[in-house]
Design brief:
324 residues; mainly alpha; 14 helices
């Protein structure tokens, strides 16, 4: 059960709305709007709990008279629950229940776009519950596909790109330990490539870089009779992402991409026609990328990522030393 909130500011806001002479409908809409404000740019988890308290009050006021507003309050509450940092599954399960309760009312009363947005976020909740064995990844893909009926690339390119990214990542998660590993990893690559036919660097640079970076990751680990060709394709995808991502404007995204590119270079011969000659040149380039990524991760206090990169740097030094 969601705990009750006692934050003084939220209590005061609810009391102020209750004392207004506005209609019940207006009061519900004010509560939802205030809650959205907390969720939009939360500074702490308490902001998200505050939003939940406001959504709860909106849901309570809605009763059975304002079913669409009630559904919106539930969807807002679910989104806030999903955003609260938590290693357990309890908040995600509550969010799942709220989406399943809200979606029928949305499908009856809301616009196609509002329904699709809820489906998009519901898919994320399902995807997050898969590691706990509390949801099936195929169900999240199905929900994403339903959202894509509305979020087409012509009208909603940003949502289109994010949905394809989510679907591809879902396929990759299905491949682990599966007898159909090749199929799922191939589907992931195809999904990224399908999105990139419509998402370009000029109009949607952020989404373009995201898709290219993740396409590179999928290609690196795609089982193939031509693994070196896939590494070359992966590096080309990372280079496309790096046309957008840079150390100044998007440091953490940049660090992730150069670390991914470094990993591909680590495994790529300097001369594809003579792989037996090794890769000292690519190893040195990989070391430079990893060193830069480590500095950025350390500077931005991404401790876990910095530690992983530091270990790889040690391995590269050993590798270079052994071929020295």
């Amino acid at each position: 059960m969601i705990p009750s909130i006692t934050d003084a500011a939220v209590k005061a806001a609810i009391a102020a709305i209750a004392s207004e002479s506005a209609s019940t409908k207006d009061k519900i809409e004010m509560l939802i709007e205030m809650a959205h404000g907390f969720v939009k740019k939360p500074k702490t988890a308490q902001d998200l709990w505050n939003a939940i308290a406001l959504y709860q009050q909106a849901e309570k006021l809605s009763g059975e008279d304002y079913l669409l507003l009630k559904a919106r309050a539930k969807v807002g509450m679910a989104g806030a629950l999903r955003a609260i940092p938590n290693d357990a599954e309890d908040l995600l399960l509550q969010a799942k229940e709220l989406y399943t309760e809200a979606l029928p009312a949305l499908q009856e009363f809301a616009s196609p776009e509002e329904i699709a947005e809820a489906q998009m976020n519901y898919g994320l909740v399902l995807q997050s519950l898969v590691p706990f064995n509390l949801a099936r990844i195929a169900d999240s893909i199905q929900v994403y596909q339903e959202a894509l009926r509305v979020f087409t690339w012509e009208k909603y390119p940003q949502e289109y790109a994010i949905l394809h990214n989510n679907i591809a990542i879902a396929y990759l998660s299905m491949s682990s330990g599966s007898q159909q590993q090749y199929l799922f990893e191939g589907l992931a690559v195809q999904t990224f490539e399908a999105a990139l036919k419509h998402i370009n660097i000029i109009d949607h640079p952020r989404e373009y870089a995201m898709l290219q970076n993740n396409l590179g990751n999928a290609l690196q680990y795609l089982p193939s009779s031509h693994p070196l060709d896939n590494l070359v394709r992966a590096i080309a995808a990372y280079d496309e992402a790096l046309k957008v991502r840079n150390a100044k404007d998007t440091p953490l995204e940049y660090a992730n991409t150069i670390a991914n590119k470094a990993n591909a270079l680590f495994n790529l011969p300097d001369d594809l026609n003579k792989p037996e000659t090794g890769n000292p040149q690519n190893l040195r380039q990989a070391r430079a990328y990893y060193q830069q990524a480590w500095e950025i991760f350390t500077q931005h206090r991404q401790i876990e990522q910095a530690q992983v990169v530091a270990q790889i740097l040690q391995d590269i030094e050993t590798e270079i030393g052994s071929k020295g």
